[in-house]
């Protein structure tokens, strides 16, 4: 079969690397892919938001199956357009992708169907948002309604910060239309867990849990980023908590989407917080997480393509989704300065060979002739799978140490919180 994957990051490289193991796939394409993905798939110069371009390419090339990985094309209706053109897809339709595309939609869904989450108020004019801030006690969590590259959330510890966030979103339009409506919600506390789940709208099969490290600097300091590293499984996510999440969050969410006529098929990402009052939803994403995918898929023992077809065809209940009882760690190597200003164009030197169960997933790099050069903030993920988390963390850092490029930066404490939790 001919399969194309939409997207260009480390997540897409991890998906492509796993799909490459499937005996059912003859040719893999990446739209647009990147300089590292080019080693594993044929990269085609069609942007991830160019829906017409991807449909035209798929039809011309006779693509059998498409995996739409990023949020933007999903929210823009890539799956609807490709399926209408006769291309089978893994991923939700635009109407189901609203679960990520509009935070207000997601919060209203949870409220209506009794799914545990932070309490909240919605605002579409700045005056009432400011009045609310004046009348309530901090901390405030201010969120832009629409997609904002993971940057549309501000945790404000006082009224002045909250007011500034509201003003940046609604008045200065920092996130364009995404901030024309906002949410102010209750501040929750507790360990965070990411759970990616396959669902065909009837059955939910959660993948191994993971822990992201969102802040730029060690000890969770500095600015929020797309994610500086991950470990899996997440030690806070016990079997007991998993069972509670299945009953109170995962199944109710699938049922809620069905009852609104927005059946969700694909990978549904549950961003959870384990609060003193029980697990609550922080956010939904309509797609695989990045860099969660880089630790979750290397632990998947079943054939990814078989699962993706079953999700699309509605036969997930008959399909095995099995994970290795091991641990994985991904250390993201970024350009110094990310997520703000950084220089790119530096040559990347990779080890000749990686060891067993070690992977390098390229995110922000392009080919200059045969030389791989940095081209983005997050450049790559160094991943290792081992029997214990401690060994996986050690091996991932060891692998990162064998990779070099100008202005390389990584956090030194990926996995530290998880290891501490395991030692309790
Ligand atoms: P989001 O983009 O919604 O995942 O938010 C980014 C990060 O902000 C989350 O990973 C949490 O660490 C934090 N966050 C979001 N909402 C809340 C909340 N209601 N209470 C505490 N922290 C939150
Ligand atoms: N790692 C967080 C996300 O993919 O949204």
Q: Keyphrases for this structure?
A:
single chain; 424 residues; alpha+beta; Rossmann fold; Dna Ligase, domain 1; D-amino Acid Aminotransferase, Chain A, domain 1; 4 domains; six-stranded antiparallel beta sheet; five-stranded parallel beta sheet; 13 helices; 23 strands; 27% strand; globular; binds adenosine monophosphate; binds glycine
Describe this structure in words.
This protein has 424 residues and is an alpha+beta fold. It has four domains: 2-91, 3-Layer(aba) Sandwich (Rossmann fold), CATH 3.40.50.20; 125-180, Dna Ligase, domain 1 (2-Layer Sandwich); 192-318, 2-Layer Sandwich (D-amino Acid Aminotransferase, Chain A, domain 1), CATH 3.30.470.20; 327-422, Glycinamide Ribonucleotide Synthetase, Chain A, domain 4. It is 31% helix and 27% strand. The protein contains 13 helices and 23 strands. It has helices at residues 10-19, 51-61, 71-76, 78-84, 94-101, 103-113, 126-135, 159-170, 239-259, 293-296, 304-313, 389-401, 416-423, and strands spanning 2-7, 27-32, 42-43, 65-68, 88-90, 120-123, 140-144, 153-156, 182-185, 192-199, 204-206, 211-212, 215-217, 221-224, 229-232, 266-275, 278-285, 327-335, 358-362, 365-368, 371-374, 378-386, 408-409. Strands 12, 15, 18, 19, 22 and 23 form a six-stranded antiparallel beta sheet that branches. A five-stranded parallel beta sheet has the order 3-2-1-4-5, sandwiched between helices. Strands 6-9-7-8 form a four-stranded antiparallel beta sheet, sandwiched between helices. Helix 7 runs antiparallel to helix 8. The longest helix is centred in the middle third of the chain and has 21 residues, at 239-259. The mean pLDDT is 97. Bound molecules: adenosine monophosphate (AMP) and glycine. Adenosine monophosphate binds next to strand 8 and strand 17.
């Amino acid at each position: 079969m001919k399969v194309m994957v939409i997207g260009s990051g480390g997540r897409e490289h991890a998906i492509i690397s796993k799909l490459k193991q499937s005996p059912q796939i003859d040719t893999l394409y990446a739209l647009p892919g990147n300089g590292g993905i080019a080693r594993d798939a044929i990269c085609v110069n069609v942007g991830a938001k160019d829906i017409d371009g991807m449909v035209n390419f798929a039809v011309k090339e006779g693509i059998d199956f498409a995996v739409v990985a990023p949020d933007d094309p999903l929210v823009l209706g890539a799956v609807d357009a490709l399926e209408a053109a006769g291309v089978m897809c893994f991923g939700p339709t635009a109407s189901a992708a609203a679960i990520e595309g509009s935070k207000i939609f997601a919060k209203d869904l949870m409220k209506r169907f009794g799914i545990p989450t932070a309490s909240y108020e919605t605002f579409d004019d700045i005056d009432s948002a400011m009045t609310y801030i004046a009348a309530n006690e901090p901390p405030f969590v201010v969120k832009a309604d629409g997609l904002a590259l993971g940057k549309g959330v501000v945790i404000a510890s006082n009224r002045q910060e909250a007011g500034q966030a509201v003003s940046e979103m609604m008045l200065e339009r920092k996130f364009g239309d995404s901030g024309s409506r906002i949410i102010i919600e209750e501040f929750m506390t507790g360990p965070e867990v990411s759970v990616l789940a396959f669902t065909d709208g009837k059955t939910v099969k959660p993948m191994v849990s993971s822990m992201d490290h969102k802040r730029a600097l060690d000890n969770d300091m500095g600015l929020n980023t797309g994610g500086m590293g991950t470990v899996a499984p997440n030690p806070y996510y016990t079997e007991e908590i998993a069972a509670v999440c299945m009953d109170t969050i995962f199944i109710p969410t699938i049922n809620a989407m069905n009852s609104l006529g927005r059946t969700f098929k694909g990978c549904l990402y549950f961003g959870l917080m384990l609060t003193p009052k029980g697990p609550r939803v922080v956010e939904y994403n309509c797609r695989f997480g990045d860099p969660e995918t880089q630790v979750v898929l290397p632990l998947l023992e079943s054939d990814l393509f078989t699962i993706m077809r079953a999700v699309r065809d509605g036969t997930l209940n008959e399909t095995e989704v099995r994970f290795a009882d091991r641990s994985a760690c991904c250390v993201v190597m970024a350009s110094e300065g990310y997520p703000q200003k950084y220089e790119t164009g530096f040559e990347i030197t990779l080890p000749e060979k990686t060891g067993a169960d070690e992977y390098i997933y390229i995110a922000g790099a392009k080919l200059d002739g045969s030389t791989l050069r940095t081209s983005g903030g997050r450049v790559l993920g160094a991943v290792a799978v081992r029997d214990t988390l401690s060994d996986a963390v050690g091996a991932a850092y060891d692998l990162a140490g064998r990779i070099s490029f100008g202005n390389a930066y990584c956090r030194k404490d990926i996995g530290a919180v998880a290891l501490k939790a395991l030692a309790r």
